[in-house]
Amino acid sequence: MLGPEHEFSIVDENLKALPIADKVIKDFRGRIVNFVEKSYFSFGKELQLHVMEFKPNKPFRSPATFEEKMHSAILTIWDFLERKYKAGLLGTGMHPTLRLEETGIWPHRHRQIYKAYGKIFNLKQHGWLNIQSFQLNLPYFSERKAILIHNILANVCAYLPAVSAASPIYEGQLSDYIDNRLYFYIENQKEIPSITGNVIPEYVYSFRQYRDEIIKRYTLDLEKVGADRCLLNKEWVNSRAVVLRFDKKALEIRVMDEQECIKSDVALSCFIRALARGFMKERLPMLPTENLVSDFKSIIKDGLKANVMHPEGPDAKCVLMYFLKIAKEYATSEEKEYLWIIEKRIENGSLSEAIRREVVKRAEKTDFNEAIIDVYSKLLKSLRDNQPFL
User: Fold this and answer.
1) pTM of the full structure
2) How does DSSP assign 273-315, residue by residue?
């Protein structure tokens, strides 16, 4: 079962972010609600007014169904945006030219949660107002299996940004980091470090330990600074790369940037699921958490070229090639149909690196801002046509 959650910017034909998510929701429902439920998908608000979230009404059993249904959902809303607002949807991990004053925070129902966060954290920063993730929920059916998968995913997620990074540019400038979304994500709740931890989660051994040592710890830290009750004892406040969601009986993976199209999101999902299956079947060793954290920090800066301490190193590309070999061996026939995209990302670089190459190349012939618009206009088409940008 695969439970995806996608985040896309609403943009005009010149890529300008449009903070109109509430207006679009009202267009569909006649009033402002958090989510609009359609026949097989829902779409609705995020913290940022220029971003909308898309998710299925129930998890997908098949990767092909995931691709078909979520791409159809995108087209349904896109067609409406185009007719009424001359707008579309943009994937990737960050909007490349957004200035923070060009968007806002959701001011309607559930705003009390954002107000509660705003009392403690500075929400006027990219780590809150300009990040778009592709989240994947994997169900669990027992405590033992949930704990095992959680710890396996800690080992996987440390290296995943080498192929899932899709945020090389923000405020119209190329950054030194491959994954700027995660760079800002690490810092966005620094006032209460226990919420994010080191992003890569520490190993856990039981649900009780998880509640006592993770959820209870950040709840106590929030209480010390006078946080509102709506943030206390909530599992979704945990901002690590992998979160146990007891309410959904699922493990929620938060480390991936939104990609350029649904097909690429499906490819990442198949890669993770097949890789986790391989880790379980072969009982592969779990690396020390400090090594995983160190490698993760290197990878969000240098991507596939990052030097790592993994035994299959010396760099992240070697580790991903090893992971791909395992995934191919344990993938279902349907999952295998998507792994070619991951293979291309490992060979040629993540979407972030592809964007960087194209923008730099285009900037040799035109203004840098125009180069950004040209390349990201192609990414708009990638989402609409559901074609990977490789």
Assistant:
1) 0.94
2) HHHHHHHHHHTPPPPPHHHHHHHHHHHHHHGGG-B---TT-SB
